[in-house]
Every structure is written in C-alpha cells, then in structure tokens.
Input
Amino acid sequence: MGAGLRERKKSATRQALHEAAVALSIKHGLDKVTVEAIADAAEVSRRTFSNYFASKEEALLHGDQLRMRLLVDAVRDRPAAEPPWAALTGAALEVQQRLGARDPRWVTQVRMVRRHPALAAQQVSTYASMEDELTAQISSRAPWSAQCPVRARLMAAAFMAAMRVAVQDWLDRPPGTQLADVMREALAEMGAAFR
Amino acid sequence: MGAGLRERKKSATRQALHEAAVALSIKHGLDKVTVEAIADAAEVSRRTFSNYFASKEEALLHGDQLRMRLLVDAVRDRPAAEPPWAALTGAALEVQQRLGARDPRWVTQVRMVRRHPALAAQQVSTYASMEDELTAQISSRAPWSAQCPVRARLMAAAFMAAMRVAVQDWLDRPPGTQLADVMREALAEMGAAFR
DNA sequence: AAAAAACTTGCTTGATACGCAAGTTTGCTC
DNA sequence: GAGCAAACTTGCGTATCAAGCAAGTTTTTT
Output
C-alpha cells in the first residue's frame, strides 16, 4: 500500500464507523441509532465521529459514496473511442457485475433509503457532487461538448436519474430479478435522448 | 377562499414564517439565521415554527414547494389528448411564464440552494414527493403505461432532472437570458428519449 | 532523536427536534 | 348566541447534534 500508516488508520476508522452505522441501523432501525452508539461500537469517541462524518446518514451511505467513486473511475477507464452514453452504460453494468451480488447488506441499505427521507436527501447530495465529475468525463468524450456544454450536464443528470429509478424499481420486482437487467433496460430507454 | 378562518390563518402563519426565513436569509446569510429569529420575525413562538416546518431549510424552500404544486396542477389541466412529454413541457413553460419574472427573490433563493448543500438536500426531498404525483399524471396519459410502468417514473425523473439542470445553467448565462428559453431547450433534448 | 504536523479526545456552547400538558382560538350544533 | 369539541399555540423539558478549542498522543519528517 503506497499510503502511510496514518492514511491506512484513517480509512480503517472511517470504514469501522461506516460498518458500525450499517450494523446498528439494520439491527435497531435508523432512528433508534444515535451517533454516540455508532462511535462506541467503532471504539472511538463521540467527537471523533464528527471528524469523519457530518451525520449518521453520511456514515451509513459511505458505501454508496465508494460505489459511486468506482463508477466514475470505471467510466474514465472506458475506451476513449466509445461514445459517452455507451461508456456510462458499460461502466454501470461493469461495476454492478463486479460487486453487485457480493454485498447482501447493500440491498438492506437501499431499502432503508426509501423509508427515510433524510437518507434520500443525503444520497442525492453525494450524487450531486458525482454529477460534476461525470459531466467532465462526458465532455471529454463528446465532440459536441464545445457547442453545447449544457448537454453534457443533462446527460449526467439523466444517467443518475435512470440509475436511481432502476434501483428503486428493482426492489419491487419479483425476487431473483437481476438488477443488471433492470438497469440495462432503464438506461436504454433514457439513452434514446442521447443517440 | 372557500376555506374557513382556521385554514386561512394557518396558511398566513406558514407564509409569514416562509417570508421571514427568506428575508432574514437574504439579509444575514442562511447560516447566520436561527429558527428562533425566524419565529420572532413572524410573531410566533419558537415552538410554533416546529409545528409548521421541520427546519429552516424547509421554511425557506416553501416557495419552491408551492411552485411545484402549481406545476403538477398545470400538468393535470392540460388537454387529455396531449402526449405526456408535451404536457410536461407545456405545463412547465406555462407556470414559468405565469410567475417566473414576477418574483425577484426567487432567483436569490436558487442561488442560495447552490451554495448550501443542506438546502439542495431539502429541495430534493420535496421534489421526490412530486415525482410520485407526476408519475401518476404521466401514467394516466400514456397508453403504454400498463405494459411498462417504470417508463412513467423514468419520464418523471428525466423531466425533473432537466428542469433542475436548466435552472442551474440559466444562473450562469448572461443576464437577460430568458429562463423559459433555456428550459425549452433542455426539455427538448431530454424529450428525445420519449417520443 | 527531536521537531513538526496530524489526529484523537473531552469539554463546552449554541442549535435543533419533538413529546407533553396546559391555555386559547375556531368551527359547529342546537 | 351559548356551549362543546376539535384544532392550534405555547412554554417547558429532554435528547440529540455540530463545531470550536486546547491538551495529549501518534505519525511523519528532518
């Protein structure tokens, strides 16, 4: 690991807080969990929690944050010749396949987001900052981005919206339905605007 | 004003709190304003504020909430024969034209949303509940909504995203640019997916 | 090994939401 | 128009939370 001990300890602490938040929320329900309880479970002080996350919602959705970062990186690694929407779709499916089925707690988290408006709000905040990065990625691929800069942002917003709808819809599908299939479908429909 | 005195007083109080929140936020900046100050300015107790709004952010964005309600109603009042996306676009432009240029404080509010993540999060919460109503409206217009229920939700999400991007983009345009024009443009691009 | 930088922690302050139980206003009926 | 019930306002108390500050500790750097 290139990073020093300090950096490793920091991400360990952050991860521990995140996992404590997830575990406690699953066990007792989000609103029965206090920041103090999370800090205790992660073996740090209440104050240290605040050094890492601004709220328990943020701690809970740290996983989503990482997931989104992976997605942005995946888009970056797509072949440069690929048109923007295809790159977005490809990256999304790739990331989904890589760690989609491997984390059973993620589904629980997603369900929680639907029941708690505070979580949804938090989620959108993190998504919003990703939107800027995605917009930049799209611009660098699209020949038309010089003439119409708003188009790239529009595409990023549409992509995020389609992803969100796909995940939410998937929760109501019969068990066994592949999220990747629902995503592919939603992205294809939305993508009609950008081809 | 068919409602009784009680109802009228309630919306007067709500409006007074909202306007106090806007005025104080413009004057001192959002984070220098406390709920107590807002309540004082509106001549009600600190506790009463909490009976109306869950936070100062919610009070501040009450105008947006009303605006969105108008939009949903405008969609409802569109000719039944009009296809969904055309109804959405028409309603948006209609509402924009009706009260767009008339409220100078609204622009200040929108700029504030961009600077304060807490406001953005709040805004998304209110938008999310509108998305459900818009989805219902769309479904009732679309012949295909029976086969593909997710498509209506996708359209609603795309519509909201396009509106949001249009407003944000408009803020960076040279002064004098008509918001309606930017909106029309964004909605047209996005709409390509749904025709 | 010593100096510097970064991190943790307890303490404190300022704010906030919300339950509860009065007191007050409004709506409705006779 | 008198009175009752429901709805609303208010003050109080409790629990929760973010953030500044300063002292102590760990890691990095020189």
In short: Residues 6, 9-10, 44-48, 51 of chain A lie near DNA strand C (CB under 10 Å from a C1'). Residues 117-141 of chain A form the longest helix (25 residues).
